[in-house]
Amino acid sequence: MKLGGRLLLGLIIGVVAGAVLYTVMRIILGMPAWAANPWPMVALALTTGSIGLLWGIEPSLGLARGLMGMVAGFVVGLLVTYVIRLVLGMDPAWKPEPAWVVGAVLGSLGFLLGVGVMTDWLRWTRGEKTPEQHGPPKGKPAWVRYFGADQNHKVIGVQYTVTGILLLGAAGTFAMIFRTELTNPGMDFLSADLFNTFISIHGIVMIASILMGIGGLMNYLVPLMLGANDMAFPRLNSFGFWVAVPGAILILMALFFGGWNTGWTGYAPLSVRGPLGIDFFMIGVFIFGFSSILGAVNLITTVLTMRAPGMSMFRMPIFVWAALATSLIQLTGTQFIGLSFLMVVLERLFHMGFYEPSLGGKVLLFQHLFWFYSHPAVYIFILPGLGIISELLPVFARKPLFGYKWIALSSMAIAILGFLVWAHHMFTSGMSASLRVPFMYSTMLVAVPTGVKFFSWLGTMWRGKLSFPTPMLFVLTSIAVFLIGGLTGPPLATVPTDLHLHDSYYVVGHFHATMFGGFVFPFFAALYFWFPKITGRMYNERLGKIHWFFQTVGFYTMSLYMMRAGLLGMRRRLVDYDPALGVAGFHHVITMAGWLIFLSVVVGVLNLAWSARRGPVAALNPWESRSPEWLLPSPVPEHNYEEPFEVVGEPYDYGIPDSVYVRMHSEPARAG
Amino acid sequence: MTATTQTHHQEAISPARRLVMNRVGLWMFIISETFLFSGILVSRFYLWGGTRPHLNQLLGMSVTLILVTSSFFANRAEVAIKYGDRKVFLRSILMTILLGLLFLVGVVGMEWPSAPVKPTMDGEFNVYGAVLFFMTGMHAFHVLTGVVLLAIVARLGARGHFHAEHFWGVEAAVIYWHFVDVVWVFFYPALYLMGTAVGPGH
Amino acid sequence: MKHGIRVSVIIAVLSAVMIYWARTIQWMPVEASREAQPIDWLFGLHIDVITFLYVLVNGILVYSIIAFRRKKGEEEAVGANFHGHTKLEIFWTVIPLITVLFFAYLGTLVLNDISAAAADEMEVKVTARQWAWSFEYPEAGVKSTELYLPVGRKVKLTMVSQDVIHSFWVPEFRVKMDTVPGITTTLRITPDREGTYKVRCAELCGTAHAAMLGTIRVVSQEEFDQWLQGKQAPTNASELSPEELVTLGESTAQAAGCLACHSVDGSKSVGPTWKGLFGSERTLSDGTKVTADEAYLKESILEPKAKVVEGYPGIMPTNFGETLSELDIQALIAYIRSLK
Ligand code: HEA
Ligand code: HEA
Ligand code: CUA
Ligand SMILES: [Cu+2]
Q: Do the domain assignments include residue A124?
């Protein structure tokens, strides 16, 4: 009860402080104290309210300090912009757009300073040495470290994963809001602009959630699988996670600043004209991008330099290959989405005519830059998921992974080919007609390495001894669902058929199937599989199966009906559709199926949350995996491997008598 | 956790291996930045094609020479500290910083106000202005961060922070500086030399 | 080996049945253009291959689940011991490679076929803007808010956009193409089925994207010529009876896209309803009041920004003056007037 009281008090103080701060700011900036548009104030009060809430739990949380830094950064940014304009004699001195943009940038910086991920670096510039930090802050309970700048890769992995699930919940809720609007034809309760905002924010927050989710998997698993005690750069790792948080906050803040009406793709010139929310969306994505890039720098370095003795590239657990391929894309491609969005923001702020034809700009430049990242990005979403499938199948088939090298190299092939196909999103864009055919050919090629994975999975299952606990069920449906997603790709890649399919619900069905099959299902497989490793406890098997069943049924129904509606002429991004197309019934079903997925995921998340504290203590190696992390106690100790191990065999020789993958040493070995 | 595990953890990675890891990490970062600047170059060619604005050729040539020279001094600084010659190291790094600042003055202080790419009545920039300011601005921002890094290194060096066995800070700042320099080696012809110059505000 | 034979038989039978069944499904809307035929054929071929591969992978998957499941008493049993099979890997690399390249090749053929120019093709200029379509027949010098097309004749649409990207899509014709500010895009269509269709803007273009529909009438050549002549003939309002004027106004409102934003039954939409508009007192965004007489309506149509109604954003397109003739405007006013 005492805690409850503190929470409530913190919340109230926070909200009031936010409202007061907002009013004071308006008065300083020479505006009437009360605004016609209450939403920016709501955003601020929500932020300060959550600071108060966190403060009520534990005054020293890094997250609370980060949020305070963010508010302070915003305040400074708004005031600085105002003063500069005033001094330079610009009219009007208070102009919302530049002020909020500067505020967003300084706010993110303030967040990072506040949360403490830059403290060590700042001290380095003064020549001070900083010890690596281990364990929770002195004199604090262990859970506190999950809310602050911690440098342990397992803590960071959990931070990523939980943030990913929270964003999944937010984006899923947005989906349910606009899906409910679409249940019946006609405008029911959303205005057109609000609807457009919701689909856009659903799309980008889902993508942010995926990036967090794979960040979680890669951070938690890769060092354990390599036999390393941490990532190569623990401080950078911490920074990489926390920089994503202000990015995500900015994206969500767009809701309070007029939203945005361009979809997640933000095509110019619509995005150049849209409301202030677009600036928040684009700057948010830009800052989020740092997380991807720095995470990739760290991961690649870890894989290249921190493998245990004897672990050659082709003896790494297969998930590491997937993580490596993913990181290569993140490292390079992310710059391009940042670039395309930066140019939009510059065009909005300074009227720089990159995309404005009357100033000599070119509209299609945006699409080329955007898709040069965003197509490869779709392989960022799936490669870790496909890695999970390859990782788990042998465990539950008790049989070696079929064609290890082919699977490993196919990840690389997908990553590289992925950079050569971007213009398949632009077949109808009016780009030079002679470009369409080469991009049709290159796109088709991606089917080949993906197919290699599928057939190798079948080879792995063939004549195995399969068992079906929850993770395996998720793995199996991943395969079946990703298959529909993948197979519906070639008709999109073929220009003539894409002329019909482009921007229809067929595409919507295609990408939900690929993303569910390539990410959502494998992500849950991984969560259930490593849950006993992470928490030391076992989840509830029956609830796990319930989750699996309804998610599978709901998802199949949803995506198949989406594709069907698209073929009949249902366009994307439509607040209201023409019942004459005969798709009203389909939309009914899609909404129901969406709710089914939503509820099943809630069951799953609650199961995991409850079991993490109350579940039965798990066996040491419940799946009898050969992967080295299962040789450690659960949860894994602060320093993963007190005794470094040596790799002496193949990773997936399940069922082969006397075969050994790793051998623990007692004397400290030098890794090389 | 306890102090014993901490020392154990730190001794697991030897300084030599740390250096290798740092180098790999830095190069990864530079690969990433390469993509950023190639994206900018691609945009330049997409938007300007075979044309370019009339720019002050003498100024362009001068800043390029200045920046290239600065890389020479940066290299001298790195070599000097690896041989433990602190005096040459300090002198060279200060020279690098000076030349870097000179470059910034040349581009931002002189080229920007004089370039024939003024905004229109409504405060709009046509593609020539937009791309010019964007390219030079993004590059100048990186030069500025480079200068800041070098300044930090110089200050630490002046306090005796680096020596022949401990030079990663210097090496990192210098590699970054070379990279920023190489980027300009590509930007300079793209801005000043390639394509036919078209009239101001074309 | 017995597993292999069994699963092959199952897959062969099942895929044959499934492909046959998939062929009976009408996947797309009616075919109303010559371009639709090769596209639908190609899509059908895709569906065949998709169906086969779907049955193949899932067949083996489900077969494995059933045949190779861990049965009671097999708790410690392990699977067969093999690591891979290089020949097999090469096989399932090469066969899909050939398949997809073949599809890309077919795609190229079909693409060339449907985008080829014809000697007697008719040009129509398409202008897209937020959120309406307008059309121009350069040879006849006619502007229109509806797209009339003669059946069986290839048309070349040359398309521009005045603001943001839109996309010209008629699902019954299958093909689509974006209209892009700053460049002119082209699309060729040969309508071959008379009837009324809708252009549906397929690229998100802002608030009223969903309502950005245009009307297409595919008619016989004679009817088309007649329509074109009617458009050319100088008509003015006095030649029509008041009822004819109202009817014309109603169809103009349909075709020009007014009804995307204005309702005629009093319900709220993007713009104010027209029901009871005429003669009522309007409050403008600057607080002044005006009476909605003919002059006001005309100004509202030609220069919507001049007087913006309170409570509505001033987003009504400002260039109706370019596409609507004087007669159209008279007719629209008459129609609005008739909505009591
Ligand atoms: C996880 C994400 C993901 C993945 C993996 C894919 C995979 C593929 N995608 Fe998809 N795609 C998206 C996410 C994804 N896509 C998204 C988000 C969009 C929309 C973006 C937007 O506009 O908002 C999109 C849109 C999109 C388009 C543009 C559509 C349009 O807007 O007009 C195209 C066109 O070519 C395309 C093609 C493909 C192809 C060929 C693959 C291939 O990689 C698939 C390969 C897999 C298989 C083919 C199945 C397995 C293979 C075999 C069993 C072997 C045998 C197969 C054959 C012989 C065919 N996708
Ligand atoms: C991973 C990616 C992902 C996922 C999982 C989803 C999930 C869903 N999507 Fe989404 N979607 C996209 C990515 C994704 N989507 C993208 C990129 C777009 C394009 C946007 C654009 O056009 O710009 C899009 C667009 C899109 C459209 C098209 C909109 C349009 O064009 O008009 C539709 C329409 O039905 C839709 C529906 C749904 C539904 C019903 C779900 C459901 O499956 C959602 C189910 C809900 C959940 C999965 C959340 C579960 C709940 C929790 C986790 C809460 C538990 C938490 C706690 C208890 C703390 N989506
Ligand atoms: Cu025009 Cu959508
Ligand atoms: Cu793509």
A: no
